[in-house]
């Protein structure tokens, strides 16, 4: 019986450093500028916003929303998926795979599409509740009505708030 208590006390003692690790934020909000290049030669400017629900230091579920505008036309995307991060004190590099939909229109007409974004970026930490998204780059694929546009890129930068 005494041996069992020694094992339990030893395991609890060894587990203390693990419990003392810095906790990551549960929610992250991102908002910023987005540049979008759609093939073959359309460049648009707009906004990008995202919310991350962090399950631990390296895994989150992301909801990503964006709007791009050019000459009276628009493209709105809404995508969801996993994000994997490697958090350090100074920077947080991440990768994500996002899947969802898009609404593309010009003037009065608009059409829906399947959208997918694969990419990642780097956040430069400026405290425990604030960081600058130095860059986020995504390969963006759109599929609608049998047509697939796969040579698209979006690049974003902005601010991240952590709660």
Write structural notes for this entry.
- There is one protein chain.
- This protein has 163 residues and is mainly beta.
- The chain has a single domain, classed as Porin (Beta Barrel).
- The chain has 1 helix and 8 strands; from the N terminus they run αββββββββ.
- A hairpin with a 3-residue loop joins strand 1 (27-38) and strand 2 (42-54).
- The N and C termini lie far apart (45 Å).
- The model is unreliable at 14-21 (pLDDT under 50).
What is the strand and helix layout of this fold?
Layout: H1 2-19, E1 27-38, E2 42-54, E3 59-70, E4 73-85, E5 91-106, E6 109-125, E7 130-144, E8 147-162
Antiparallel strand pairs: 1-2, 1-8, 2-3, 3-4, 4-5, 5-6, 6-7, 7-8
